[in-house]
# Entry
Amino acid sequence: MRPILDDRLRAPEKRNPTMVPLKRRRVVSSCDSSTSDVSNTNNNRIKFQQQVLFLLERKMGSSRRAFLTRLGRSKGFRIEERFSESVTHVISENNSGDEVWAWLNSAQEEGGHHGQPPAPPAVRLLDISWYTESMHEGRPVEIQDRHTLQEPQQNAEELPLFSVPSYACQRSTTLHSHNLLLSDALSVLAQSAELAEDEGRGVAFRRAAAVLNFLPKAISAAEHLRGLPSLGEHSLRVVQEILEDGSSREVESTKQSDQYRAMKALTGIFGVGVKTAHRWFKLGIHTLAQLEDSGQALNHTQQAGVQHYSDLNQPVTKAEADAIGHLVETAVVAVSPGAQVTLIGGFRRGKVTGHDVDFLLTHPEEGKEDGLIFKVVAWLEAQEGRSLDDGKETQKAWRAVRVDLVVSPKSQYAFALLGWTGSKLFERDLRRWAGHERSMSLSSHALFDIKQGKHLRADSEEEIFAHLGLDYIPPSGRNA
Ligand code: UTP
Ligand code: MG
# Structure
């Protein structure tokens, strides 16, 4: 019988020998069987008990895998549908040893198996050629060098085996990224999704970018990222293209696209959100100039946004943030002696520029913070009136900067501080962690323990992290 060498059983390329070193092996306990039509039942008598085979669907495809499985079983081979520690031979087609190994790791992650199950004595990573020849012979043929997959390119020490916790709030992500080129590219796709009001997709790219920024070294091959949390196929594809070609076509075309450029320009106007910008875009308004010519009604905030467009789109420097900090402190002390001002947002995380400057105000005596913002703003406006008058005769000696003031009662101060320091993704993951992992609800006001049915007090950020069962991460490590 020779149904074997049809084109579905074509000869593979030659490969170098490999056997996965035990110390690098992790065992995956499931495969994606949802796409597989391999039958679970094996009515054929198993002739070769010693060899427990697993056929990798990746690149082989589910129908070919099913066909090969049936064929092997009909010849008495023991073929498992799922990878488990009993598997002795992993058969794949058009995959490198690295790829197979990475797949095993990623499938393990997806299956939620984070531990290190007992390793079997040895597992062989074999090319399909060994399988087809064994089918020919009707028995497992002796394994030759040419059957075994290429030894992974790097030694265990060199191969970047990154361990990345899933939640951004479990990781310290500083401003010093080793993969900024890649994460910036993914941030473009994130922003594009956000501007299209596709929040889920936006968050997915933000998460992928954040993982890249967390990694302790620069990535040289997309394969090294397989199995890491938050790096989906789409992000991996973009990363691979940039590593191989220097840029990603999708990212470049996104940056050039009319809609992306227009939506960025319009939402860059203070007071204009995505919905408004999209409505204008559909009316053919793509630029600030077109908006000004259009006669569209603008609210008060938007009018200020248009008036100070260029000022507000110029990044705020740390020196400017400090100068504004002094001014805000002066105002706060003037209107409410004893009140306190804390720099929050990106500058608290150590950023050297920002799109605004954020401050948190509070008063040591609970209740005395009431109306504080109103008084501070009134004081600043009075100052502004004076300085504008002073500058009338000379040239403009000031520029508009966006300042966000947040006020909180002392009892909520730690929650407000944590909630307004960011980054946005870090905050999102703190809340997600609280809800999913601790049955708690976290906001910028409070932490509620759902199981105990009560609020948990905290006077510092450290206490909140402790309540959440997280290691404390200082602001500089919250740049996810
Ligand atoms: P920002 O938008 O100012 O972000 O919000 P940022 O991190 O300071 O970045 P740049 O430097 O200005 O560009 C500061 C933090 O305040 C919270 C978020 O946690 C954010 O990280 N925030 C902001 C909210 O909770 N709600 C908002 O509506 C805005
Ligand atoms: Mg800010």
